[in-house]
Design brief:
Elements lengths: L17 E2 L6 H4 L3 H10 L2 E4 L4 E4 L2 H9 L3 E2 L8 H4 L9 H7 L10 H10 L4 H4 L3 H15 L4 E3 H6 L1 H11 L6 H12 L8 H27 L5 H7 L9 H32 L4 H4 L3 H14 L6 E5 L3 E3 L2 E3 L4 E4 L1 H4 L34 H18 L4 E2 L4 E2 L8 E3 L1 E3 L2
């Protein structure tokens, strides 16, 4: 989830390779695709002035760089803070930093391999497929709760609760804790905003501490009395004497709880919006399992939930004529890559029947989203059940996106169906 920032300023970039877009400007984050259009037509590899680092918007480059082992999510395993001129950690974000200390998303091998191997089996397709009946039941319960209303915010009433409850139950936390988990997660996600304030840092840190206290209590309970859940599995697994510490289990649980719902919530909201703004009969989009899968993949491509994923250069290197120093950051623009006209026919058309479907919304390489199989099933079931139950669903007001550029999702999605 986390964005990483450029350590040393880069100044020697010719003007024609630079591009400017203010991430906090509503005109930008409500429709970043206009900026992407300009990039694709002019310079898909560019230096983003506001972020201060090189970015890649082309599908081919993004796909390749996600797999390129010369880049990594962490840098201090190959360099010191002194060598890089990196600032010391902020005392007032110590709790937030601790939640990310052992995060799978920010580790590189061998630490990443060790943790991912342990957690991965809980998210393989054959295992999460067993959750389909539970997801169907949950989706229908949510629809039952608002079907009698005239209109509803679909994000709050449907898109957000389902994945939060499912991942909480998988880990071993009560379903009724889902609203509190969502609240902590939303406060923590604010740390990834461009130009965040000191007050936002303090609030995210407080949420992190509360989240850790909650998970810490669950860890102590599972150590005393293990059950059949992922938390117990992480605490009791022993690979040739190698066991996870409480800090490692806590970081992993919080990452799974945060990442386990964030992208799915956004894709559900963005996907329903895309469908309702198209001229396609939604019933046809979920008429068969195969078409349901294709519809979900097009939703992931057309309006991705995550628009930038950043990496450090692990050594001095040259990439396609760009000289990068050890510690330099690059931005991989997933949302832009998914709209690359060199890769997709009519890239700006929402077409669930396209034959050139693909996307990089879940990443690639060793950091490919571990929860992708679960997210795909949740999306297939949730949207399928929604349009089966409410085939006349339509927008009740123009949707608005959140002011968090990296995480591209709707603030609310007001719909009606009568």
């Amino acid at each position: 989830m986390a964005a990483i920032t450029q350590i040393k300023p880069i100044t020697d970039v010719p003007q024609h390779r630079r591009a400017s877009a203010e991430p906090r400007d509503p005109a930008f984050y409500q429709n970043p695709y206009a900026f992407y259009d300009h990039l694709h037509s002019d310079n898909p590899t560019f230096f983003w002035e506001q972020y201060g680092h090189w970015c890649f918007a082309g599908f081919k480059d993004v796909s390749a760089l996600l797999r390129d082992k010369r880049f990594g999510r962490e840098i201090l395993h190959v360099a010191t803070r002194e060598e890089l001129g990196m600032e010391e950690p902020k005392a007032h974000t110590a709790a937030f930093d601790l939640t990310e200390k052992h995060s799978l998303l920010n580790l590189e091998p061998p630490a990443h391999t060790r943790l991912r191997t342990l957690v991965n089996r809980a998210f393989v397709s054959r295992h999460v497929e067993q959750l389909r009946p539970r997801i169907i039941k949950l989706a229908n319960e949510m629809i039952d709760s608002f079907e009698g209303e005239a209109s509803v915010d679909l994000i709050k009433a449907f898109a957000a609760p389902i994945p939060a409850i499912i991942i909480a139950e998988m880990i071993g936390l009560p379903a009724e804790s889902a609203p509190q988990l969502l609240a902590w997660s939303n406060r923590m996600v604010a740390m990834y905003m461009f130009g965040l304030s000191h007050e936002t840092e303090l609030d995210a840190n407080a949420a992190s501490q509360e989240f850790m206290d909650f998970v810490g209590d669950a860890i102590r309970e599972r150590r005393r009395k293990p059950t059949e859940d992922l938390l117990s599995h992480m605490l009791t697994s022993d690979r040739d004497g190698d066991v996870l510490s409480d800090e490692e289990v806590m970081s992993t649980a919080i990452l799974l709880l945060n990442a386990g719902h964030e992208a799915t919530v956004h894709t559900t909201g963005n996907g329903v919006k895309s469908i309702l703004e198209s001229d396609i009969d939604p019933v046809t989009l979920f008429s068969t399992p195969e078409q349901t899968e294709a519809t979900v993949e097009e939703c992931l491509r057309f309006d991705a939930p995550l628009h930038m994923f950043t990496r450090y250069a692990l050594s001095d290197l040259d990439y396609d004529g760009i000289a990068l120093r050890k510690g330099d950051v690059i931005g991989l623009m997933l949302g832009a890559a998914n709209r690359d006209p060199k890769r997709f026919t009519q890239a700006h058309s929402f077409d669930p029947f396209r034959t050139d479907g693909a996307n990089v919304s879940f990443g690639a390489g060793i950091h490919f989203c571990i929860g992708a199989p679960l997210a795909r099933i949740e999306l297939q079931v949730a949207m399928g059940e929604l349009f089966r139950r409410l085939p006349r669903l339509r927008l009740a007001e123009p949707p608005q996106y959140n002011n968090v550029y990296h995480f591209h999702g709707l603030k609310k999605l007001m719909v009606e169906w009568r």
